[in-house]
Structures
1.
Amino acid sequence: MFTGMGAAIEMRGVTVRFPSRGGEVTALDGLDLTVEPGQVFGFLGPNGAGKTTAMHVLLGFTEATAGTARLFGRDVRESIARQRIGYLPEHPDTYRFLTGHELLDTTARLFKLDGRTRRMRIEGSLEAVGIGDAAARRVATYSRGMMQRICLAQALINDPDLVILDEPTGGLDPIGRMDIRRIIGELRDRGKTVFFSSHELSEVELVCDTLAILCRGRIVAEGPADTLVAPGERLEKVFMKVIADAEASS
Amino acid sequence: MTRTLTVARVVWLDVIRRKDFYVLLILMALLLVALVSMNLFGLGGVTAYVADIGLMMSWVFTWILAISIGSRLLPQEESRGTIFSLLAKPVTRLELILGKWLGAWSIVSVATVLFYGLVFAVTALHGGRFPGWIVLQAIVLHAMVVAIVCAAALMFSTRLNSDAAATLTGALTATSFLLVPRIPEFVAQAGGLRGGLLLFLYNLLPHFEIFDLRMRVLHDYGAVSAATFMMVIGYGLLVTIGFLGLGWIGYRGKQFTRGSLSGY
Ligand SMILES: Nc1ncnc2c1ncn2[C@@H]1O[C@H](COP(=O)(O)OP(=O)(O)OP(=O)(O)O)[C@@H](O)[C@H]1O
Ligand SMILES: [Mg+2]
């Protein structure tokens, strides 16, 4: 459960510029974002909008050129900020020489879980992502979707209060997508916060209660899903319109 | 501590499950046994000469292992993209470096013991006897050298790819091993500013020669006194910590972005 330290995610004026040939690329441009505990927050935007970059700032991989980012009130540059976080990267990959079970055990040890909790959590996460059968096999033999699933299991091992998922349904079959929806639903029911990016707008519609649309490193639309998308309207249409407006005004 | 040990454990599993590593280890072991045995029959004799070759090859092989393992652990996390899942955990960069070092050092040290064991086993078969205490000291000091080489390789690999890190580590350690003991000779000849510079290098570069007890083992010169032994270990630790510290400084503020990971 949330431990009472303010917003789950708080980004204030976060700008990220990457040096590049003959100038700079502005990936994030003064991003302000607040995700409250318990929200299922859909982070949308066209390719190259800055979604992955924002997540990288939150996890301390990339330092913001300007601005501040906090997780449950902790500066993201402190390693302790990641204690209650689960993260699924955009291109999930992990130690292929370990078996699924060993991988989860290793991850649990990084969170300093004791033996009993470890066994319990490993069972639980394996079951949640539905690869119990393959847990004794080396990850090297996994299919892409299985890789995605074991990485997700890894992200859930510490029973995180905030789960950050970068395109969790990419590479998954329809059953896998439904599994992700179910997992997100279960997390929400247990009062957890879920922050995820996705291009599958029909999926997003089904699970999110709050949305933000990012374009060129700025938030161009944000709010509760049911206000942003009027009853009877489709998210896809809203998305297209918002992006078209943003592109026109820039 | 738990986290450091966990990172080290992953290093172990990685290394021992790679076919190339244990094939390499077996080949080295065979080569060592072959070299030692061949000489026994060829030269017909003095076991000290034979053991000399065996120990020299043990130094070379463990040096190669320490460089190749130490220099690839961090870069491969980046090239395989596993660094993101890893750093998303509450692991500090220091724990990461220490864990990688511990894993690399312990595994190469085990290989060291194995190589010494082989050399002494083969020579013992032919009547060669070496004093246990000195052998033990020799192994411990050899493991210190492994510690330094692993730390140097890790240090370079925090900011370089594995090839560059391995090359630099090889160059640095080989220079130190071959040249440093001879610097005083050069200083005497050079004098002046050049002499000063050489003296500076003499103090800066690691002194691997003081860890090398092969002659003592082979000719039974007697064990090193406890005080000297501890001082040499202390020096080894200091150099190791120095390299790891520099590595940590290099790694602490490192950014992991798409561009930096692909190396372009
Ligand atoms: N290391 C880097 N160097 C230069 N530019 C970068 C770097 N990383 C990201 N960018 C640029 O920053 C912008 C945002 O990229 P980002 O990966 O955050 O987009 P995204 O919203 O996740 O897109 P997608 O939906 O395709 O995953 C892009 O223009 C990208 O090219
Ligand atoms: Mg992305």
2.
Amino acid sequence: MPKNSKGIEVAKILPEKCIGCQICVAECPVGAIEMSNGAAVIDPEVCIGCGKCFEVCPVEAVKFEKKRSPKKIRKPEEVAQYARDNYRGVAVFIESFNGQGATVSWELIGKARQLAEKLNTRVIGFLLGYEVNDSAREAIAYGCDEVHVIDDPLLRTYISKPYGKALTDLCKKVKPEIFLIGATPLGRDLAGIVATNLETGLTADCTGLDIEEEKNLLLMTRPTFGGNIMATIFCEHHRPQMSTVRPRVFKTPEKNPARNGNIYCHVLEPPHDKLPELIDFIKDVVSGDGVDISRFPALVVAGKGACDLETMPLLEELANLVGGIVACSRPVVEAGLMPYDRQVGQTGKTVAPKLYLGIGVSGAVQHLVGMQGSEKIIAVNADPKAPIFNVADVGIIGDYKKVVPVLIEELKKRKLRN
Amino acid sequence: MHFICCIKQVPDTSKVKIDPETNTLIRSGVESIANPYDMVALEAALTLKDTCGGKLTVLSMGPPQAEQVLREAISCGADEAILLSDRAFAGADTLATSYALTRAIEKLAQKTPVDIVCCGKQAIDGDTAQVGPGIATRLGYTQFTYVTEIKEIDTVNARITVKRKVEGGSEIIRGPLPCVLTVELELAKPRRASLPRLIHSLKSEIGVWNAEAIHGDNQKLGLKGSPTWVKKIFSPPFKEGGPRFDARENPRQAVEDCLKTLLADETFAFHLLKQWGQ
Ligand SMILES: Cc1cc2nc3c(=O)[nH]c(=O)nc-3n(C[C@H](O)[C@H](O)[C@H](O)COP(=O)(O)OP(=O)(O)OC[C@H]3O[C@@H](n4cnc5c(N)ncnc54)[C@H](O)[C@@H]3O)c2cc1C
Ligand code: SF4
Ligand code: SF4
């Protein structure tokens, strides 16, 4: 252990492990830790060797030899406090557009059911809009035990303030312990308002949810640091534990129209402020045909390694053959070969087709987070070490110019035979 | 008019790599930069200032070195810069961050009422997109997220019209000031500093405010004011992947082998070769 000039054994931070969360900075009783270039640094002359930073660092980035008594065991009363008795149930925000529920809401109801079973509690739907009763019944068919609805002409289209207020009011009345919202543009706009109003924790864009056994806390996992690492986040002392969740991370549950559930109607208490007005809606004109790549059962995904004009017709042909459409990675969009709507990945679309066929895609994390839910993944890449092979069910190592034509031929043969 | 732009200093995450063997971050060569979305927000604020006149204050919360991004903002044309720096702010999650920034904006507004706060859509190190809505909610300002274009600003009636991204398209929406805008990258291309401004920025005074200066409630600041905690960090799960066939020698053989493996799953083969079921 390094000692300072006063002979105190001081703590040291390993910069390659530090993720710059600053928890240690906040915890150090003598202010010995500063941030420098994204990593924490301890001033050994100021450090008193208390070991606090070592205890709180979530990634073991602090080197410190512990000589003190082992961590105190939490008393039962303290545990009881965590039950947060007044808050019960797993709530899902049901996003509705023109009277139609968004798919991500049904996906979340499916996940909420699993969480609710572990917690032995109910699944609650929160639904806002105008003339949305059908969606309420649908939410029950997908697995809600009860749906709380505010149906009001003011909520016909989405405006941040009235929606934010209405949803905050519902949360205050119903008091769910967990509240999940789809990470759609609307959901992300709304979640921040509600969490701020309720002064509770909100974890954005989660890709994994689970219940921790000891205290029944929600564990929320999300990519962070530009998708380079995953972080598991929890919210211990505030309720509800809120999270936005990416579409297509969880499966849509079976719909059972015979399921029973209660629908409660609440009255809107509109905000007093002057509100914005919607002037126009411009539908995305995507490559002339308005394709949504996330709806296709098969995708042929062009990467930078197959990014030239001559190749495109070949990929189109392959896509037709497998009953799908051509999508791409980010560099292909940047090169202007495909519109942004066709981009798969963190900053593009999340897809989960039955067949993903990557041609010249290296498999960067930012790309992988957008396609890992695919049922079957085939990769064609010249580099045997390309990370895409690690997630592929089958891989072909080689030049796509040689592989793709043969693949087309062989697929045609097999289609004819069938 | 008084414009405020919030800027965060972030590690350049596009350069961060994970060492697959030791499972740690490779930091060498990773510099701190101004969050790219915030630089677009700055450009938006500068353009607004150019058209309407007024004052632009830039605001950042971070360690003392974050001063660098504020100087950059001044070199581009910002008039005043405030750095929120205090140990009490350390470890803040989005709730505590929006609290501190809001307190600072309220303090600035006491001197000169604020009309528009510009923020980036999200920060590239966290990608949460929550701070903007947090500020708007706390201040009670009109909130416009994912703005791709500022269509019109009507100073007489104190209204703004913007185009913003929504599911499946864009909407044009008009609402009252004051407001908070969070901007998309495509809104504008950040300008470059001129030489005289660059020199000016080096000499400019940057106000540093601590928790006391913004009359912050210590329970709501930094780690104490943060409901969410990081439990653990890990690399995305490593998978082995399925079989690989080498097509470098004999493409046909490799393709055949590959299809054989793939089509061994009969239902999958049926769907692929006939038609996809629901
Ligand atoms: C914040 C952030 C967000 C991002 N969001 C996204 C996103 O949403 N989607 C996305 O896709 N990317 C995204 N990226 C970019 C991402 O990091 C990668 O740069 C990108 O996915 C790489 O695309 P690629 O695989 O097509 O290209 P490369 O990484 O350049 O890979 C090309 C591959 O083609 C192979 N190849 C070359 N020639 C041939 C040949 N003749 N035959 C066969 N194979 C060949 C090469 O071996 C290589 O593996 C993001 C990055 C950041 C920092
Ligand atoms: S050991 Fe204690 S005094 Fe030293 S840096 Fe860590 S927290 Fe601060
Ligand atoms: S707590 Fe650990 S990861 Fe966080 S800043 Fe300190 S050393 Fe780095």
3.
Amino acid sequence: MSLLELKSVSKGFGPPGARAEVLRGINLSIEEGEFVAIVGYSGAGKTTLISLIAGLILPDTGTVSLRGVEIVGPGPDRGIVFQNYSLLPWLTVFENVSLAVEQCFPDWTPEQRLEQAERYIRMVHLESAALKRPSELSGGMRQRVSVARALAMEPEILLLDEPFGALDALTRATLQDELARICQDTQTTVVLITNDPDEGIYLADRIVPLSASPSATFGPSVEIDLPRPRDRKGLNHLTRFKEIRRELTDYLVASSRSKRLEVRRTLVLPDIEPEDLSIPRSAIAGRTRPIRRSEIKRETVEI
Amino acid sequence: MRNIRSKLDWLLMPLVGFMIAVAVWEFVSVALCKELPSPAKTWSESRDYVLKPFEKRGEMDQGILRFTWYSLILVAKGYAIALAVGTPLGFMLGLSKTFTKIFDPIIQVLRPVSPLAWLPLGLVLFVGAGKQASELGALFTIAVCAMWPTVLNTAVGVRAIPQDYLNVARVLKLSRSKTFVKVLIPATLPYMFTGFRLSLGIAWLVIVAAEMLTGRPGVGGFLWQEYNALNYARIILCILTIGFVGFALDRLMGCAERCFKTA
Ligand SMILES: Nc1ncnc2c1ncn2[C@@H]1O[C@H](COP(=O)(O)OP(=O)(O)OP(=O)(O)O)[C@@H](O)[C@H]1O
Ligand SMILES: [Mg+2]
């Protein structure tokens, strides 16, 4: 049995009548220990999808189940890293992480909890910033705190919603490497949402494209059979990498083209000809109005 | 030279303003309204009260700071009641749409009622308390009038809590009470403090009216008594005192507010 299973899930927003369908016919199953990346356009419904898995919202039709048990609400067995970090700004880094630890392991002794929080803060290299508040951290550091908080819950599955979307390319690369290392070490099941196919290919075991909005659905998933650990620079030159990448982008581009609205109408252009008003009209061969371009039978252009 | 001037601007500019105000005051008292005491006369008549600010010569003849102290104590009590009632009310309004629908109209109707209108009602309510009636009536008035900014700002603050924070609470499965203490209160605190600050301003406004009508010893009571005794100079003393104390209170709350905003 797969760890996570989505069966013909659909979700829409808005009042009945003016309902906009965001996701339709979503099927996905994720095995234990697998790293799955989901790529899609902005606004395709990626956050909606991860909120469904997290249980923050419920599907309109279909079921989401974890180990065969239907998900009906959020819980600490699914650690989520929100798109906008969502750290509590009035708590320090350490307090943010230890609040999660406290909630997930109520039976532990205070020393064990302290140890757990410190371990995961160390894992994302933030020991020196442990007593700072989120407002004193850079975007990348906040993102790492968010990852530490999710991991410290020791979830069955880690949900990452565009974790590096708001970061510059250099920081992004560093954090990707860090994430790859952490996932290798902890062997957690991961769902990574991203809008960057390269990021997905670099990190994941399997990558699933999400078609463009509205009514987004999954395209054919691609196994990434590239050996690990992957080398960022070398990757670009592998034929297999290029193949996967082309496959993904072709699907995404095609999905957005077929969804694009097409408007056709005949434009009626004004039919106006300039006229020299100083010449009296009657003087020119009985003409009383200027000749329209559409009335000209033959037009000669001098070269 | 220019540098030194701009450094002293914060002190010099307000001083210029005060001087202009005093000049206008002097001009009005001399040229337009002979009844208005001039600045010099005001000073000479209220010197006793300012230079011996804590002296008690009689029930209604005490140093100005002693009077201020009485007023502040009464304000503190009424303000405490206002916060104790207003904050929970604000939370309920912010959290529950039904509660808002039921009570918001009443609040909107009661909010603009003047303290002068509440006070007689307060006195009637506590008429059974005998000697305490005037104090309780005044407290009631302060609390009722000062409550609204706290209520409304807290409600706005609760409604403005980003969904993300609530999602974090849901994912972590925080209990209701823990969500309240760990998420709702800290997230609302800046708004609450804005409300507290506005409430304090109103409480200080109301105290003067309440004291005037009940004749309690305090800045407002003193003002009213001196008016009846035709000592207009001391009315001005009272006005200035009320103004400065109000300004100081506002500044104090402003500092507290800033502390919580950055948090
Ligand atoms: N609570 C909501 N109410 C109404 N519409 C919503 C809601 N949440 C999302 N939508 C709509 O669903 C669509 C998908 O939104 P979603 O946030 O899932 O996109 P996304 O793929 O995460 O985009 P991005 O990459 O920019 O984060 C959008 O068109 C959005 O308007
Ligand atoms: Mg999103």
4.
Amino acid sequence: MATPPIAPGTDGPASDALLKIGQFFTRWDQSPDRRAVFRSGGRAGDAFYRNRWSHDKVVRSTHGVNCTGSCSWKVYVKDGIITWEAQETDYPSVGPDRPEYEPRGCPRGAAFSWYTYSPTRVRYPYVRGVLLGMYRQAKEEVGGDPVLAWQAVVSDPEKRRAFQ
Amino acid sequence: MTAAAHVHTIKTYGPDRCTGFSPIPAMSMVSHAAGARFINLIGGVMNSFYDWYADLPVASPQVFGDQTDVPESGDWWDATYLMMWGSNIPVTRTPDAHWMVEARYRGTKVVSVSPDYADNTKFADEWLPAQAGTDAALAMAMGHVILKENFVDRRVPFFEDYVVQYTDLPFLVTLEQRPDGTVVPDKFLTATDLGNAEAETSDAAFKTVLIDRDAGTPVVPNGSVGFRYNEVDEGKWNLDLQGVRPALSITDAASYSGTTSTVELPAFTDATGEGSVVHRGVPVTEVAGRQVTTVFDLMLAQYGVGRAGLPGQWASGYDDVDTPYTPAWQEEITSVPAQAVARIAREFATNAEKSRGRSMIILGAGICQWYHGDVTYRAILAMLMLCGCQGRNGGGWAHYVGQEKVRPITGWAAMAAATDWTRPPRFMIGTAFWYMHTDQFRSDGYSSDSLQSPLAQGHLEGMHTADVVAKSTRMGWMPFFPQFDQNSLDVAEAAIAGVARGEAADEAQWVADRLKAEDMRFAVEDVDAPQNWPRTLILWRSNLLGSSAKGEEYFLKHLLGTHHNVMGEDHAGSRPKDVTWHEEAPEGKLDLLVSADFRMTSSTLLSDVVFPAATWYEKHDLSSTDMHPYVHAFTPAISPPWEAKTDYDLFRLLAEEFSRQASAHLGVRKDLVATALTHDTPGELAQPGGHAPDWKGTDIPAVPGRNLPELKIVERDYAAVGQKFSAVGPLAEKLGFTTKHITYDVTHQIRQLAQKHGVFDSGAAAGRPAVDTDARMAEAILLFSGTTNGELAVQGFETLEQRTGVQLADLARGSQEKRITFADTQAAPVPVITSPEWSGSETGGRRYAPFTINIERLKPFHTLTGRMHFFLDHDWIKDMGESLPIYRPPLDMHRLFGEPQLGQRGELSIAVRYLTPHNKWSIHSEYQDNLFMLSLSRGGTTVWMSPQDAALIEVSDNDWVECLNTNGVYVGRAIVSHRMPAGVVYVHHAQERTIDVPKSETTGRRGGIHNSVTRILVKPTHMIGGYAQLSWAFNYLGPTGNQRDIVSVVRKRSQEVRY
Ligand code: SF4
């Protein structure tokens, strides 16, 4: 007597029964074998991720850090904000019988765009407060000429010492 | 206010008290050029960086006559034997490391030399763990094996043909008999010495001589520097031997009679650096009444490779422990087994012979940045030259330290130096500038002669290093700024008046007479006098005080006049003679420190004014490197946010404001500019034989451009600086732009630029083409360079063809119509065009390897002989004992500076070598404060040490420790790793004060950066000038800011830290 073929996996009457019970409590469109269900809606949360990785334009730039890499990077911009960077891959080929230059990069460079809006970013000009105070006062005293004002500050040893 | 400070300084003290520092133009050429252009237009001083960073391998100018020229990483693939020597490729050349790994899959053997189990060592087939700083001993032993097996036991034709044509090995060196009867190698024999018709030819003192093997007679072959500049020899500056077969050894000459002579040679085999003398025989012959031998014969003598019939002490075999430079001798010093050395040297040479020169050595900062790094490099380059590897694809040296290669060099140099408006510019050697102006010379207790050869003749006797700087300045060897103890504007006007009164033939001579009469002094001779202080300093694209400032604490004390951790005293014993000593050292020389950056750094924290700069994603600019052959663009992804500005805009605005203020205070002035005798100009023929007696204190006249700097009067219209900044000036067409003595006529390019950008219609720049935005300046840089403009490449080669008489222009003719525009570089990286600005050829799509044009087209190297040099004969080099490749141990900091001896113990402390290699999670100081890198790395300051040293001072991983010596103190957490060898700590380069740096227990002040524990150590031989390849050019030659010989005490500190 021929034995019936053994079904692959864990399928069997027990799992069929469990699936049936499951569908009794949650009714959705389903595939005939009940292994897949079809739903619509409920994806609002994805927008966040999609936006994070969408962009309006891509711009070529690199890093000027004396690293010797001089790698070309794609910089992604969304709504006027730099979002992330990725390695360029369009270096002209060096020939058929050898490896290529693309892609180039390093983990440090891949982290660069963080600086744009980071707490360490220098956003405005800074001047040493004591110096600026003395300079402004001197400028008033000499009648507005910046050179004479500077001269007044630095030729006074005490003032010079005060801001150094 | 910044503009006002500049106007005031120029008016009161002189333009050369205004200084700027911004390194590495290749990493953003326009941003660099913009600031440099402002500084140069006002007559200010730009400091060099490549030598200051000790990225410059001084051996390169010494041996090749070239700043640095190396293969792109794609050429590693062509190597069939690849050594990595002191270069940690995966960490410091991350995007290129794959080539090294891939070459292995192709069958290339990869060997690593590093003191620690470095990241690159993991990829190597074999590891030679040489003790830090002893690499030259290893290289000398390999050279010993190569010479013995390929030049004596067997003579390999491939090697011999190469060295007689492309190196100085066959050239004749005179032997000098000293009064005590001893004999030492002296100088190259020149045509002048021959006393015949040759001696009467132009520049005969710069034409070196060899012996015709067959005829046995002296021959003056083409190609030495004596053929480079004069009219008569046009067409003869080439390496064509015209059928002459040079005698490599004197014994090869048909006329050799069997005469020998025993010469004395210096050796520095003792760990204290103390020199000794070895006696070795060389074959000699007589030419024009002088005893001569060849450089090759001296090389065998130096390396201790004996030949039958020669007197002297020679190595008895590779296992001879006592005789330098055998494999067994080096084992005692480096710890590398002698057999491994012999085997690797043999493999290296055999591979080169079979592959025709495709053995390559990648070298890096780990061996370059030592005091004697030049000597180490020369020993390694010797291996490559002996094996015919230089100028080959897949062969030769591959030195990677710093992004020095500005491929479009001519255009960048013109924009940065503003030579389109005024020349010459004021360029300074950074190391000497900081050494003198931060008063590090005051605590420098050793005189130059403490490192000299036992055979020295006293050229450096009793000279303090500050005296070396002073002498180098007054002899025209190296530049120094400020120039004089008076305002150079006043000097210029006085000189003009003096000439009008008939006091001298010209202004330069008038100044020379004042200097000779000591009516006027070089500023360096009284560098601490207030009128000689630098007054303004602008930093941009630079974090000087968080990164490169060797002896950082001295910067803080003397230049800035702020809080510091200097613990040593001024040196009472050894004081300079030619530099005035002030009892009270000045503190706070600078009036104003300005920096421009996009992030807060150790430098911005210390600045008086900080300008917000655009990031690399917010400006137009250009980038190139020696690692790959492309130029490509920076493009703004967004416009600079907040009040940030591009470097270009910042300096344009500063130039305009400066001019507004200057029109009332300065107007049009004359300025007198002093420049050193410059490499690749006839100035390098000023001092024949490398023997230059001093005019100071003797009756030798001081002659500008001979034994004194060149002195030139220029006009500066200070009210027009703003307008000149944004336009290309008329000297472009009038004088052309010059790179390496090839002058490019850019008349056509100026027309093109005018059509493209338009011209100004009024003012000082009326009719001149605009470069009034960063993108336009980028365009100009590309337009004026041969590598990016085929028309100029062809033109340059045609000029060079006339001088050399060999065919060259075909290398670029296929690209004559090609012009790489800025838009091209924005579209994709663009491979550059073969150009005489560099020494290699990319023609036909081959990978870039340096010197292929020299080797294949017989174009000379820019050296004395026109060949690559093993032998150097300048008086100072001889006195330092470095005429030939040699081993010199790291400096003995105990003997020279009174630091503790290595291994010396205190309570929970030990004295160790203090090394500052590059870091995996940052590049210089950049990125370490980046949130992502902080998360990936340990974060904050660290000190890597071995488990052995950690156990001795009871330190566990992550404990706080302090590294200190007389220079300052550094505080960090210990990383205890088996990767580290005992006796060495690694404090990674440029860890800044801004992240997690607590107060030190030792001084109570905040701990410093890695360079707070280092100091500037100027090597006198780097200050030589005025003599062929040993002549100054900006970033080409100058003293290095080396920092690896430093010894520091590492001690466990209280684990309670305060910030
Ligand atoms: S990715 Fe890394 S190596 Fe490449 S340019 Fe940027 S920082 Fe340099």
